Amino acid sequence: MRILGVDPGLTRCGLGVIDSRPARQAALVAVDVVRTPSHADVDVRLGLLADAFDRWLDEHRPDVVAVERVFARNDVSTIMGTAQASGLTMGLAARRGIPVAMHTPSEVKAAVTGSGRADKKQMTRMVTRILKLESPPKPADAADALALAICHLWRGAASSGSTPGAAKDVDARLAARPAGAGLTKAQQAWAEAIRAASS
Amino acid sequence: MRILGVDPGLTRCGLGVIDSRPARQAALVAVDVVRTPSHADVDVRLGLLADAFDRWLDEHRPDVVAVERVFARNDVSTIMGTAQASGLTMGLAARRGIPVAMHTPSEVKAAVTGSGRADKKQMTRMVTRILKLESPPKPADAADALALAICHLWRGAASSGSTPGAAKDVDARLAARPAGAGLTKAQQAWAEAIRAASS
């Protein structure tokens, strides 16, 4: 299974791809941080992010996308950009039929380090060790995206949907989807209904 | 000039297209509300919205997209879905080089009715009158998207970017863009830099 972890943001959007290996091992495939200029208009920044994210989906063809869950209670000054970036990446992945899972920062920390309160240093150290890298992933703020992907791999049946508590088995969704399609039958029926209604 | 107004939302996303006519007149081109099923996962809903919105861009080829500005202080229970939907539509428009303007609800009310505190009934009545429709636009909650488009037409030099106070002249951006491209030269330079950095 190939997992693309997304640490959403407008100024920096971390992207990290890992492949699962037997015995819960994981291998690094690609990691980077997409930056958009803070002095550009928000729509232009989102357009640049959309292009970059679609290129990653084209190039790496992940089976699952794991996105950090954004909470409305986060810092108000950055919440809008983060929510917009997360909505954009989620929509672009979902329209290709790629299941999207969401994990909270503390879920990610707990999965990777064993503690939901781990600091950045501990997280980077564990990501480096888990992926058997010779040095910490670069750029430094890309480690979070890899940690998200590792968290998804290890948590297995991961929560999905943005409503806390509405846990869904994203791997079951992945298994249930018909070959060549990305949506379950029910989801396809909805999609067709919406397409019919708007055409 | 053709303007696509977007009233962003996951459960209902209003879309309304108008054409400008001489003497500040406006003509209705198309209006609808895209709905996604509330029991579906957020990523699937965003994917459906992405497909629907891209179809509207393909079909109607607007010169400008006017999106309701979402504030972080809005109702917390719906803010995330609204922000995600707005980010998605803004990114999809911007990547095509279509300028995106944002207007606050009170700007829209003031532009359309003369009062920033107009109620839904007054708004619908004015939209119906401005567009010279025989009956109010249907579905009923589609009037907001048309009001956004009318607001953009009448306000002319509209604000852009999600930071209140950072007003930009979106029509100047529209005029300045090179033929066949959607971004200004500076924006193209950023886009190329980002593409180069991530390829």
From TrEMBL, chains A, B:
This is Crossover junction endodeoxyribonuclease RuvC. Signal peptide: none annotated. Belongs to the RuvC family. The gene is ruvC. Its EC number is 3.1.21.10. It is an enzyme of class 3 (hydrolase). It comes from the Bacteria. Mg(2+) 2 binds at E68. GO terms for biological process: DNA recombination; DNA repair. Binds 2 Mg(2+) ion per subunit. Its main location: cytoplasm. It is found in: Cytoplasm. PROSITE patterns: RUVC. SUPFAM superfamilies: Ribonuclease H-like (SSF53098). GO terms for cellular component: cytoplasm; Holliday junction resolvase complex. Its cofactor is Mg(2+). One of its GO terms (molecular function) is crossover junction DNA endonuclease activity. Homodimer which binds Holliday junction (HJ) DNA. The HJ becomes 2-fold symmetrical on binding to RuvC with unstacked arms; it has a different conformation from HJ DNA in complex with RuvA. In the full resolvosome a probable DNA-RuvA(4)-RuvB(12)-RuvC(2) complex forms which resolves the HJ. Mg(2+) 1 binds at D7, D141. The active site is at D7, E68, D141. It catalyses: Endonucleolytic cleavage at a junction such as a reciprocal single-stranded crossover between two homologous DNA duplexes (Holliday junction). The RuvA-RuvB-RuvC complex processes Holliday junction (HJ) DNA during genetic recombination and DNA repair. Endonuclease that resolves HJ intermediates. Cleaves cruciform DNA by making single-stranded nicks across the HJ at symmetrical positions within the homologous arms, yielding a 5'-phosphate and a 3'-hydroxyl group; requires a central core of homology in the junction. The consensus cleavage sequence is 5'-(A/T)TT(C/G)-3'. Cleavage occurs on the 3'-side of the TT dinucleotide at the point of strand exchange. InterPro entries: RNaseH-like_sf, RNaseH_sf, X-over_junc_endoDNase_Mg_BS, X-over_junc_endoDNase_RuvC.
